Amino acid sequence: MKQRKLLDGILIYMNYIMSISTPNAYPRVQYLTLVLLETFVKNCEKAFSEVAVERVLDEMVKLIDDPQTVVNNRNKALMLIESWGQSSNELRYLPVYEETFKSLKSRGIRFSAEQIKEAFNVAQNSTELLNTVLSSSPNEDVLKDDLTTTLLHQCHESQFTVQTIIKTSGENEAVLFEALNMNDEIQKVLSKYNR
């Protein structure tokens, strides 16, 4: 009974916060509301059906589509929809989750996991290539080569992207760990270039 009342309150609050016409007015409140929703969905067995019935997913899609939405809030909403939409058997009785996920994906929306994976791949490839170029030619001419300059620029861009991932990873320890390791690898190869 207590869970039901609490869930009802959260859903009402969630709909209110998500439907505020100026999302930048309360970005931290929006984010914390998404975290609260995530917590209840994980811990309350009837939460998924209530979220579907209360049209919270529609409000989350509006939040994602709104260009004024703060990036962390957009990413959090995308992460939730992605994880719910890709859950195999547990949500088969509620196809709205999978449909919402597929609809966003078909519209070209890129989910945070895809973006992070792509950023790590670019960083890894750039770092390995620059390291190979620097190791293969000990003379100073390689430092001024167009390929080396391009790879160096790509490594700097990747380092900025990885550091942004570190700052925005929140409680996702796996992403944070991978980002910190990648940042270390980039830093090593940049130090090697600067010697």
Describe the structure.
The protein is an all-alpha fold and 195 residues long. 76% of the residues lie in helices and 0% in strands. The chain is built from 9 helices and no strands. α1 (2-18) packs antiparallel against α2 and α5 crosses α6 (96-106). The chain is elongated and about 75 Å long. It starts with a helix and ends with a helix. The relative contact order is 0.08. The mean pLDDT is 81.
Which terms would index this structure?
195 residues; mainly alpha; 9 helices; 76% helix
β-strand number: 0
Backbone CA Rg: 21 Å
Strand content: under 5%
Specify the helix fraction band. over 70%
With helices defined by DSSP (H or I, 4 residues minimum), what is the helix count?
Answer: 9
Which word captures the global form? elongated
What does the largest sheet look like? none
Low-confidence runs = none
The secondary-structure element order is HHHHHHHHH
Q: How far is the N terminus from the C terminus?
A: 66 Å
Oligomer: single chain
Average pLDDT reading: 81
Give the class from helix and strand content and strand pairing. Answer: mainly alpha
